[in-house]
From TrEMBL:
Family note: Belongs to the glycosyl hydrolase 38 family.
Note describing how the cofactor binds: Binds 1 zinc ion per subunit.
Keywords: Disulfide bond, Glycoprotein, Glycosidase, Hydrolase, Metal-binding, Signal, Zinc
Reactions catalysed: Hydrolysis of terminal, non-reducing alpha-D-mannose residues in alpha-D-mannosides
Descriptive protein name: Alpha-mannosidase
Superkingdom per UniProt: Eukaryota
Ranges where the Glycoside hydrolase family 38 central domain occurs: 357-435
Signal peptide range in chain numbering: 1-20
Length: 990
């Protein structure tokens, strides 16, 4: 019987899919009955990669006192139930769980699972290591986590397992960049569950639950277009049809001699639910998500009842056809329905579940974990790069450790309860610990490649708080600065040292001495560092590193202090305080201690900019709503934030302004809120380092701390925020592009995710703030912009995590967090160019390590893996070894409207790019590296005529370069890769 079901379909297998012996893909889909309403039942489980329990506890079903959930049993149970009936279908999503379950299976089970996959009965959806958050994630990490999961699937099961549909059913709002990346990974569609309640109501009415989402303003359609559907019930079943152990709904009782026989009722109820749902959708197909969090641990319950439901509803002949299906089969049915679809060009942020309930707090929640995750991304890229360079040299992998642990830890950390900051505290600790373990392996890898020995280099994890026992105590040491960017970079390094001496710094490649100076350790730093170290100064010098390589500097302590003067901060009592360099002048009000004026002398711009740290009092509920501020939800109790010091002033100190390399102003708002504002010689930005915590809560108010910039700029309510570190979206105060907003929260309802930058502009100028981690940001007044930097809460927002977000850190008195903002005040034209390049330098800043001078293992003062630097507009996004060769991703890092020169298409030859490595073959892959570009064709969709017209007016700015359809198909003999603005191309080199 089962054979008869499969065999005829085999003939439809296309030669391109190389699915010899297998039958998978859209041709296995049941498309129902074209004359009736078709209900696609999608059995599924939603398995969080850590949330209330750690990822290990969820996998094994440990720590059941918190919550009953065990993923290993889910997979065991589902597989055995699928084998019983070829009609049954199931989808699985999170590879962090599946990959470890797979390793534990016998060959017999493995072959059964392979058969289920080949026959489309077990289908992988999304296929990422996790279902990543979309607000706090960086695109580099999203691409890596998707690659990790999807290449595991391809290696394990071949092309039949390639996920065709992205499945983001739980993340709390959806980013346009995510849609763009999914499209570039070859996905045919995306389904999700959470969106603003008003948005959803309107979509149901206007039949716009399903649209084409245009993910990019630069990439030509359809390259970043993605069919996107909103699920009717989030990701749960319709009411009355939950058949899991977790649920209380009645099973189908179908012995008609029984008193409680309920088949008729169940059928009627179901048919009604289906017809109601169908009213919101365009075609005669609808999808029902039959499952929820950690369901199917006893899959018998679901499948037994769904089998009966299908049987009885179909038998009732009510013009409703029900069958087992998958999201990709549902998508295919829509594709075959031959309808025209409207286009969406904005995004799905912020997510309001109901009035007063805006999920905008998690944009900032757990700022320490957010920064650690961002920095770990850099660690991983460096680790990948040095692994590749070692492979170039030796043509095989000879290293004793690998990047594998950090890859997996980063995959887990992108989960929508991980980097989002919405897990329980013990789970957040577990995420950080995994990253730490992965980084330790990578330190060995980096050390072995650069110095020849896995333990030669010393890394100091706490350089940001001037803590490094190694440098603090050495007479002489070498500083190694590794630059992961494909162009030369110069960056100031700050090394913790003993403050009583002076130091010589020598560039070991040239033998030249390098200018340096000692900067005193701030009170803010000692407040974070406490008893963990006592370096009195930071040794500051400008390190210049070659493209994709490293530079070494020798530091020698002198016994006598000669040419270096320790600069002590001085308090000024009267008059304004000014710091300046070649580009900027920043003036602080002598009375209030706050920033007052910023002058960009090169562009001759002068504007008043007042900046301060302020706090919102976290709501514990009020008469309008009992909604509290929590890990997910931001809800201030009052619209206006409060001053930190009683009088709204900051105590200011100036480090002598005749320092040649850096000028600094220290601001103290209170003993838990400090800033240092810096201007470095030769650097075209104002650096603002903030240190916030322990946030006091003894007044019983949870506090959400912001940094706010106020200017006289006329901004008309507009503010611009990036999506996942790539393209920028326009936001407007109390406004949504596709519906009339009834604003219930004037502060929280105007917050947006900021991953790397936020800016405001008037007709001439732009004020840009770049960040070192994801934060929430807003513009609530004309000329104003703010970023939320830290939060400590006493209430709980009722979204399931069950703990107040009250991080206490290692000293038990409230976590202290330190971070940086970089300000640019410039003409709009100049700002667009600068923020692109500076953002790259921030997230890929040099990795610093130390070693002994006496070591003779490596005498090279510098090294680069590149033959020549890459052009400024090209970012080397990935360079990594895989079992098949070397994976490289090149990215055009400018949009088509950023810059007259740098927005142009650019060509890079892979032929003479790397030292010691000439590719013999280069094959282009989809962005997720799981399939060759030539092997996959995406489904095509018809756009409605009206949409096509509307879309012409959608570009905010006139592009410098008009993208045409001339995407390159052949690389030629030199493997010349041409990149269009914002295009990322992925290649496997052998
Ligand atoms: C059956 O359902 C289809 C799709 O909803 C509809 O077009 C058709 O009119 C229905 N037929 C009857 C007899 O109700
Ligand atoms: C996908 O996996 C198959 C083997 O299962 C392999 O031959 C092929 O090269 C892989 N594709 C990519 C792009 O890695
Ligand atoms: Zn979830």
């Amino acid at each position: 019987m089962f054979k008869a079901f499969v065999l005829p379909l085999l003939l439809l297998c296309s030669a391109r899919l190389a699915c010899a012996g297998a039958n998978c893909g859209y041709q296995t889909c049941n498309l129902g009955d074209e004359n009736s309403l078709n209900v696609h039942l999608v059995p599924h489980t939603h398995d969080d990669v850590g949330w209330l329990k750690t990822v290990d506890q969820y996998y094994y079903g440990a720590n059941q006192k918190i919550v009953q959930a065990g993923v290993q049993y889910i997979l065991d149970s589902v597989v055995s139930q699928l084998l019983l009936d070829p009609n049954r279908r199931f989808i699985y999503v999170e590879m962090a769980f599946f990959a470890r379950w797979w390793l534990e299976q016998s060959d017999h089970v493995k072959s059964q699972v392979k058969m289920l996959v080949d026959e489309g009965r077990l289908e992988f959806i999304l296929g990422g290591w996790c279902m990543n958050d979309e607000a706090a994630t960086h695109y580099n990490a999203i691409i890596d986590q998707m690659t990790l999961g999807m290449t595991f699937l391809n290696r394990t099961f071949g092309p039949c397992a390639r996920p065709r549909v992205a499945w983001q059913i739980d993340p709390f709002g959806h980013s346009r960049e995510q849609a763009s990346l999914f499209a570039q990974m070859g996905f045919d569609g995306l389904f999700f569950g959470r969106l603003d309640f008003e948005d959803k109501q309107l979509r149901e009415k206007e039949l716009k639950m399903e649209e084409i989402w245009r993910g990019s303003e630069s990439l030509d359609s359809p390259n970043a277009d993605l069919f996107t559907g909103v699920n009717e019930n989030g990701y749960g079943p319709p009411s009355g049809f939950c058949f899991d152990t977790y649920c209380a709904d009645e099973p189908i009782m179908d012995d008609n001699s029984l008193e409680e026989f309920n088949v008729k009722d169940k059928v009627n109820f179901f048919v009604d639910a289906a017809r109601r749902q169908a009213k919101h959708f365009k075609t005669n197909h609808i999808m029902m998500t039959m499952g929820s969090d950690f369901q199917y641990e006893n899959a018998i319950m679901w499948f037994k009842n769904l089998d009966k439901l299908i049987k009885y509803v179909n038998a009732a002949k009510k013009n409703v056809t029900v069958f087992y299906s998958t999201p990709s089969c549902y998508l295919y049915a829509l594709n075959q329905a031959d309808k025209e679809w409207t286009v969406k060009t904005d995004d799905f942020f912020p997510y309001a579940e109901r009035p007063h309930s805006f999920w905008t707090g998690y944009f900032t929640s757990r700022p320490g974990l957010k920064a650690y995750t961002r920095e770990s991304n850099k660690f991983l890229q460096v680790c990948n790069q040095v692994e590749a360079s070692s492979y170039f040299k030796n043509h095989q992998n000879t290293l004793s450790r690998t990047s594998a642990a950090l890859k997996a830890a980063m995959g887990v950390a992108q989960h929508h309860d991980a980097v989002s900051g919405t897990s329980k505290q013990h789970v957040a600790n577990d995420y950080a610990k995994r990253l730490y373990i992965g980084r330790e392996s990578c330190k060995s890898v980096i050390s072995e490649v650069i110095s020849g020995s896995a333990s030669q280099l010393t890394f100091c994890d706490y350089l940001n708080v001037t803590l490094c026992n190694y440098t603090q105590n050495m007479q002489q040491f070498t500083v190694i600065a590794y630059n992961p960017i494909g162009r030369e970079i110069s960056r100031y390094l700050r090394i913790p040292v003993d403050g009583s001496a002076s130091f010589d710094v020598v560039d070991m490649a040239t033998g030249n001495s390098v200018a340096s100076e000692l900067v005193p350790v701030t009170e803010a730093t000692t407040s974070v560092r406490r008893n963990r170290g006592n370096a009195a100064s930071e040794l500051l010098f400008l390190a210049t590193e070659p493209a994709l390589g490293y530079q070494q500097y020798k530091v020698t302590k002198r016994s006598v202090s000669t040419n270096f003067l320790k600069k002590n901060p001085i308090s000024k009592t009267k008059g304004d305080i000014t710091i300046s360099n070649e580009f900027y002048k920043v003036v602080f009000d002598g009375n209030s201690g706050l920033m007052k004026t910023v002058v960009n002398s090169a562009s001759q711009i002068e504007t008043m900019i007042s900046q301060q740290l302020l706090w919102y009092n976290a709501s514990l509920g009020n008469s309008a709503s009992n909604q509290q501020s929590g890990a997910y939800v931001f809800r201030p109790n009052s619209t206006n934030p409060f001053h930190i010091s009683a009088d709204g002033k900051a105590e200011v100190k100036l480090v002598q302004s005749d320092n040649p390399l850096v000028q600094e102003v220290y601001q103290k708002f209170s003993d838990w809120a400090y800033q240092v504002v810096r201007l470095y010689k030769g650097k075209k930005f104002v650096e603002v380092e903030w240190t916030v915590g322990p946030i006091p809560v003894d007044d019983k108010w949870g506090k959400e701390i912001i940094s706010r910039y106020d200017t006289p700029m006329v901004t008309n309510g507009y503010v611009y925020t990036d999506a996942n570190g790539r393209e920028v979206l326009e936001r407007k105060y109390n406004y949504r592009p596709t519906w009339n907003l009834n604003q219930s929260e004037p502060v929280a309802g105007n917050y947006y995710p900021v991953n790397s930058r936020i800016y405001i502009k008037d007709s001439k100028y732009q004020l840009t703030v770049l960040t070192d981690r994801s934060q929430g940001g807003a513009s609530l007044k004309n000329g104003s912009l703010e970023l939320m930097v830290h939060r400590r809460l006493l209430g709980e927002d009722g979204k399931g995590v069950g703990e107040p977000l009250n991080e206490t850190g290692q000293f038990g008195d409230g976590l202290i967090v330190r971070g940086k903002h970089w300000l640019l005040l410039d003409t709009i034209t100049s700002s667009q160019r600068q923020h692109r390049l500076l953002a790259e330098e921030i997230f890929m800043s040099p990795l610093v390590a130390f070693q002994n001078v006496t070591s003779d293992t490596n005498t090279m003062g510098s090294g680069s893996w590149l033959v020549a630097p890459l052009p400024d507009n090209v970012h080397l996004l990935t360079l990594a070894t895989t079992p098949d060769g070397v994976l490289i991703r090149l990215e055009h890092q400018f949009t088509k409207s950023d810059d007259a020169e740098l927005s142009k298409p650019v060509t890079v030859s892979l032929k003479n790019l790397f030292k010691n490595f000439q590719p013999t073959s280069v094959e282009e892959l989809w962005l997720g590296a799981n399939a060759k570009k030539d092997d996959v064709t995406r489904l095509q969709w018809k756009l409605s005529e009206r949409t096509k017209r509307e879309n012409r007016v959608y570009n905010f700015e006139r592009p410098y370069y008009d993208v045409t359809n001339d995407f390159q198909t052949s690389l030629g003999d030199n493997f010349d890769v041409t990149l269009q603005p914002m295009q990322i191309r992925t290649f496997l080199m052998k």
